[in-house]
Specification:
Blueprint (H helix, E strand, L loop, with lengths): L10 H9 L8 H14 L2 H6 L2 H8 L1 H8 L18 E3 L12 H13 L4 E3 L4 H4 L1 H12 L7 E6 L1 E2 L11 E2 L3 H14 L7 E4 L5
Parallel strand pairs: 1-2, 2-3, 3-6
Antiparallel strand pairs: 4-5
């Protein structure tokens, strides 16, 4: 595995790094502050570049000071990768939608690439855990160099499945599950790195 670029950190990590609380100590009040930050600014970096008065109005004077004066060692790294203006979603390419063959997927990837779309969004569950594998085979058929494409994928939803021994659909964020999903995505997509990997948030 070469690298995994992470565009953001979790709510709990943001609290620990920027408000001085461990994941067991943070209050729902401060968790709310972090959610507000993510919803409005997208990341701590954008907060640092924003008008302090605007931040203060959002999360309060004391918390604004902690965020703007946080240690350089605690900065969330800004993702430098530039995605295409349109990102091709693959959820309906396979079993869940158009039931495209690998040859059809290869044609679609080629068409996207020729029209300036180099970013493709996946999830481990698409097509009941089959679409990313078919996409990986299709991409190999195109002959497009990996460095010219961006692969995005995610995990977090565990579908009801007898094959995977999941009896109930649920969300999961435990370490072993996330690492396992990442490794499986690398294998399925026939690549040694992912451009972006993240966890799906729970739908509220």
């Amino acid at each position: 595995m070469k690298r995994i670029d992470l565009p953001f950190l979790s709510i709990e990590t943001m609290i620990k790094e920027f408000f001085g609380y461990t994941t067991h100590q943070y209050s729902g009040y401060r968790k709310g502050h972090c959610r507000k930050i993510i919803e409005k600014f997208g990341s701590i970096q954008r907060v640092k570049d924003a008008d302090p008065a605007e931040v203060e109005a959002l999360i309060g004077k004391a918390n604004t000071k902690k965020v703007l004066n946080s240690s350089p060692n605690n900065k969330i790294p800004i993702m430098q990768t530039k995605f295409s203006s349109i990102i091709a979603g693959t959820m309906l390419w396979g079993k869940w939608g158009r039931k495209m063959s690998q040859a059809d997927m290869a044609d679609m990837i080629q068409t996207c690439f020729e029209n300036g779309i180099d970013s493709f969004d996946h999830a481990d569950i698409y097509g009941e855990h089959t679409t990313d594998g078919d996409f990986g085979q299709a991409w190999i058929q195109t002959g497009i160099d990996r460095s010219q494409l961006k692969f995005i994928t995610k995990c977090g939803i565990r579908m009801k499945s007898e094959n995977l021994q999941n009896r109930v659909k649920h969300y999961s964020y435990d370490k072993s599950y996330i690492i396992g999903c990442c490794e499986q995505s690398l294998k399925n997509l026939k690549t040694d790195y992912l451009t972006c990997f993240y966890c799906t948030d729970q739908v509220r």
